Amino acid sequence: MDLAAHPGWPLCPGPGVEGYTCPVRTRDGGQCAACREREYLLHLAKTLPAREAEDGTCPGHHGPCGRPVVIEGLCGQCRLSSQADRDRIEREWQAAAAVAVAAAQAEEAREAAPAPF
User: Fold this and answer.
1) For residue 108, how many C-alpha atoms fall within 13 Å in the half-sphere facing its CB?
2) What is the pTM of this model?
3) Residues 6 or more apart whose Cβ sits within 8 Å of residue 22
4) Interatomic CA distance for residues 37 and 34, integer angstroms
5) Looking at the predicted structure, is the pLDDT value of residue 16 above 80?
6) What does the CA dihedral 11, 32, 101, 103 come to, rounded to 10 degrees?
7) Cβ(25)–Cβ(15) under 8 Å?
8) CA dihedral sign, ordered 59, 61, 62, 66
9) Can you tell me the distance from the alpha carbon of 44 to that of 58, in angstroms, rounded to the nearest whole number?
10) Per-residue model confidence (pLDDT) at position 1
């Protein structure tokens, strides 16, 4: 998007990272697609923190595990549990985003309707 093409549009508020200012302008002053993705990834990182065990065993997903590490710092069982939680969080995030989009579309439709004179 050419930033100079829409000088009257408000800037994207960014992904909520302190010290980061997004240079993209959006029509409605909402987040741009890149900042929505960054915000989702930050949310996911906070919700599913990665832990590492110093002895090379699985630190567990919901608690201590101690099995040998197989994939990305976790054993197979903890990796599956982690993926299931990630999928659940992603579904919840997408549902919340869908509700927000529906509310915004309803508001835009209400504003676009002709005045009842």
Assistant:
1) 8
2) 0.48
3) 11, 12, 13, 14, 15, 31, 32, 34, 35
4) 5
5) no
6) -10
7) no
8) negative
9) 20
10) 47
For 51, phi and psi rounded to 5 degrees? -120, 150
Q: What is the pLDDT of residues 53-90, one digit of tens each?
A: 667 778 777 777 878 777 667 788 888 888 888 888 88
Which position has the token pair 């976790």? 74
Nearest C-alpha neighbor of 59 from the set 41, 79, 86, 43: 79
DSSP one-letter string for 46-100:
HHS-----TTSB---SSS---SBP-BTTB-HHHHHHHHHHHHHHHHHHHHHHHHH
Three-class secondary structure of residue 21 per DSSP: coil
